[in-house]
Each structure stands twice: as C-alpha cells, then as structure tokens.
User: Fold C-type lectin domain-containing protein from Astatotilapia calliptera.
Amino acid sequence: MHWRPFLLILMGQCSLFSCQRYKYYFIKEPKTWDEAQSYCREGYKDLATVPDVTYRETLYIDSTENQANAWIGLYSISGRENRMWHWSLPGVEFHDKEMKWKVGEPNDKPEHLENCGRIKSPDGLVDVGCSNNHAFVCYNEQNKSLHLIDTKKKWREAQSYCRQHHTDLASGAEQLKEAVSKLSRKPPSWIGLFRDTWRWSDGSNSSYRHWESVDELPVELSKTDSGTRKCAMIALNKEGKWSADDCNNTKPFFCYDEKWILINESKNWDDALIYCRKHHDGLVSITSSEQQELVKEKAKNATTPYVWLGLHYSCALDLWFWVNDQLACYQNWANETDTGHCNLAVAMETGGEHKWFKKDDGEKFNFICSL
Assistant:
C-alpha cells in the first residue's frame, strides 16, 4: 500500500519525446568546406545533415550564442545532368516509376530549365519553371487531407505557405494520385515536386531545404552553366536560414554523430551498463516506435543473437524501468510467458522482427550505448 501514491506519480511520467538520430557539434575553428568535411569524418560521422525542421531547430537552438555563418553538409555541382527530383515533404522519397508524366515530359524550355512539378487534370504531371505563378495543393498531416489554394504563387512561396498553414506541399505518389482525381476542371496547380543539384555530404538524399528567401533558388541554372561548385551555410544570426557560398571560403561548421553505438563485445547486462556509462552516456532507452526503428538498424550488425537494451525489472515495484529512470511506456515484447524471475533485463533480437525478450541479466550479448 505504501507504493501506491508513488506508482500513481510514476505512471504519469509516460510522455512523448522527439526522436532524433543525430547529435550536432559546433566547431568554431574556421575551415574551408572540404577541410571541414575531412575534420568531421575523422572525429565524427560527417558534416551536418539536416533532414527536417526538427533537426534544423535543434541545430539552430544549440548554437544561439554564436553569430557566425557556419558550413553544413550540403553542396552543389551545377549542371543540368546533376539535377535530381525530390518531394518537398521530408521523408517521402521520389521514385520515377511512380510518376505519371504527360507525354514528352519532363523537359526543359529552350530558354530556361524547368525544376518544379505542376499538375493539371487530365493532362497529368509536367515540369515548369519554379518562378511561374500557379495555384497549389497543400497537405495537412493532422487530418490527412489535401487543400487546393487558389491564390497564385511561385513554387517556393507556395511551399512556404503550406509549411506555415498546413504541413507541406502535396508530396508522394499517393497524394499525387489523389490530387489529380480531385482537381478535375481546376486550374494548373503546384505540388511538392522539385529538382535541384544539391547533395548531402554523407550521401543521404533528404529533400529538406531552408533557404534564406523564398525567392532564392540557388543554382537554378541556365543551360550553359555547368561545373560550378557551391556549398551551403547556415546563418546563425538569421533564424538559421541557409544560403550558398564559395566552398573555398573559411567558416566555422557543424559536424554530426549518431546518438547510438553498437558495441560488438559480449558482456552481461551489469557490465554492459558499466561500460556504456564509463565510455558513453548509458545503455540505450527506446521510448517510441521511431527509436525502435533506428536502434534495430544498429542491432542488425551485432555478432550475437540478441543485444542488451537499458531496460531492467524491479521486483520491489513489479515494474520495468529504463536506466534513465523512464517507465517502459512504449513496448515491443515478444510473446513470452512470465518467468517470475527477478534478475531480468531486456535484450532485442538482432534478426526477425527485433522483438524484446526477457533474459537473465547474467547472459552475455553485444549491447547498444547512447552517446
């Protein structure tokens, strides 16, 4: 009975935490973009990749005491052959085979390149210049709905509007199909399809961009421009807006590293915890399905059939706790019978469905540490 008030307090500690894969490090020593890239790859993972607005806000908030421009891991080599299509909504990947282009599209006008996507029923999808003015289709993640905005804007102005009032421009094959079916007899409209020459240093193909001006489309190229190299910097005194600069200029920069590391050594649970706390932050805690997905990618490279997680059992409270003192609100248990045993900790299987198993904490497995 003495535990009941305490348990009620604890049960209120389940909350949602933003799941982020990367941890950023601000390096004050000015370097060229290439020098910064080498530095980050030697001591960290790479120059900073910024996959969405949440990461961008983290990058900016963590560096508000600095007022300089700083390199991030985005670079461009101009040339029409270097362009790649992307969807505006972060996390939605472009697959060319899913596109229903109008016959003869995509193409470029003789006088300029066409880097943005527009739909008009029943013609289908065409590429046009991003500085044209059209109505546009926004996507709202909260109620999974599309919204036609009749006000005509340039593509980046439309993107900015959708991100401010909804979630983003309509993105992905399913939203494209829905938009085409709903826009019969409607005016030509922007969707979230664009192409540019920008790449991330680590090879990821995140489409997220945060340029300083909605009118600015760095390296929206003429057909004669090819081979010019530019690199992206974040303006720490302008709300984290991005702009392009000569890669040979020197600036401070951001590196990133992943937030978890797999240790390919076999230890019991207590020794694994001691190791992680000594060399890193602690054994990994998983508080959401998103974190489960990220951690399981690490677990796939283990040399043991299971990897230890930072979840252990309290006999006194009859509760499972993470080593960071959070309750086990998110769970991914395998279908196991309760052993009634006190010396238990949790290990994730390194194959199959990556379920969680209750294991005697004296068994020896690889383990994953938080950084």
Q: What stands out?
A: Residues 217 and 341 are 62 Å apart (CA to CA). The helical segments are 4-11, 33-43, 53-61, 155-165, 173-182, 269-279, 289-299.
